[in-house]
């Protein structure tokens, strides 16, 4: 959807787009073929093939007389920067993570992040919080960084019958539902949600907690649910392609992350008029207006998280008010605005 949006909203009078991947041809190339958009792949499926990928990209940039290269992701940025410099092509990239590598103590990743940002012509940070981290921790000059918020395609309201069918399939009665969508990784803060649940259950009564997503820490999280005797409350749904229906089914969408550059799932939930409860980490406060479009709590605080969830679940009118305001605010984070932000950076670099 992300790259489809770029091809859809880019000003075709000013820019001809070619999209590609570091990995061998796959779903991206198939999607671009459907749209009639040129694509390429560097056929590098492992790190030992990356030097050859640089050479291939240099040749491609020269052959097609590419005016500017825009990369996304850690390895594509590293390879793209080297190839662009060898081919003497302007280079920009989008920085999608905030302090992830810093938190995990990945010193080499942080050093490489900083090196790439300082050598690029411009970097687009997906939030002001990410920009601040880049300046303060990675010592990237402020003039190098522009904030361009991620975009989200307007989420279609789910069919009411489909939502009720999902409720039956999940065998959930008429009780409040807390939904958390995200990778099963410690940085998403599942632990703090689990720790908050006894307080929520004591004040609200029966609640179902649905976790949609996959990740490396699933077994550890399942073990924690068992240790806390929450097996009848928390359900691991795995990868889902019915996110619209899940959001429609939920009473509140929760994201107690420890690190979050933007918080895209929150914009999706807000676009469907659902109240959200999230942490104040990273770019989340730029997405959610606390007390207006959702409730924010300090990261890593279970008691405050429980209070916020209870406030939403125990006050339906307030929850509805938050959801309505969130739906309006979500319109600020559209793919169209994102692509316009990209184009503004392109114009500066190519001037």
UniProtKB/TrEMBL annotation:
InterPro entries, A to Z: Glyco_trans_1, Glyco_trans_4-like_N, Glycosyltransferase_grp1
Record-annotated Glycosyltransferase subfamily 4-like N-terminal domain positions: 12-153
Protein name listed in UniProt: Glycosyltransferase subfamily 4-like N-terminal domain-containing protein
GO MF annotations in UniProt: glycosyltransferase activity
Residue stretches making up the Glycosyl transferase family domain: 168-329
Native organism: Entotheonella factor
């Amino acid at each position: 959807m992300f790259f489809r949006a770029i091809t859809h909203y880019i000003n075709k009078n000013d820019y001809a787009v070619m999209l590609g991947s570091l990995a061998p041809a796959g779903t991206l190339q198939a999607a671009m073929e459907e749209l009639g958009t040129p694509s390429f792949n560097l056929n590098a499926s492992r790190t030992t093939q990356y030097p050859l990928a640089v050479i291939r990209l240099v040749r491609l940039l020269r052959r097609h007389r590419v005016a500017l290269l825009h990369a996304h992701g850690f390895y594509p940025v590293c390879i793209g920067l080297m190839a662009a410099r060898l081919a003497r092509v302007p280079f920009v990239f989008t920085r999608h993570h905030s302090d992830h590598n810093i938190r995990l103590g990945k010193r080499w990743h942080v050093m490489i992040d900083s090196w790439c940002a300082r050598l690029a012509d411009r970097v687009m940070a997906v939030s002001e919080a990410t920009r601040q981290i880049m300046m303060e921790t990675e010592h990237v000059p402020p003039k190098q960084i522009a904030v361009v918020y991620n975009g989200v395609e307007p989420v279609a309201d789910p069919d009411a019958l489909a939502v009720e069918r999902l409720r039956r399939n999940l065998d959930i009665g008429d009780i409040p539902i807390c939904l958390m969508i995200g990778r099963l990784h410690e940085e998403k803060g599942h632990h703090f949600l689990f720790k908050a649940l006894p307080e929520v259950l004591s004040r609200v009564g029966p609640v179902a907690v649905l976790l949609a997503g996959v990740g490396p820490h699933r077994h550890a999280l399942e073990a924690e649910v068992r240790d806390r005797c929450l097996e009848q409350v928390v359900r691991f749904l795995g990868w889902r392609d019915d996110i619209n229906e899940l959001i429609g089914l939920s009473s509140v969408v929760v994201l107690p992350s420890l690190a979050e550059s933007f918080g895209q799932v929150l914009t999706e939930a807000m676009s469907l008029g659902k109240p959200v409860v999230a942490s104040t980490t990273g770019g989340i406060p730029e997405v959610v207006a606390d007390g207006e479009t959702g409730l924010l709590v300090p990261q890593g605080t279970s008691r405050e998280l429980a209070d916020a969830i209870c406030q939403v679940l125990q006050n339906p009118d307030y929850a509805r008010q938050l959801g309505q305001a969130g739906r309006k605010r979500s319109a600020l984070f559209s793919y169209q605005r994102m692509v316009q932000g990209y184009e503004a950076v392109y114009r500066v670099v190519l001037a």
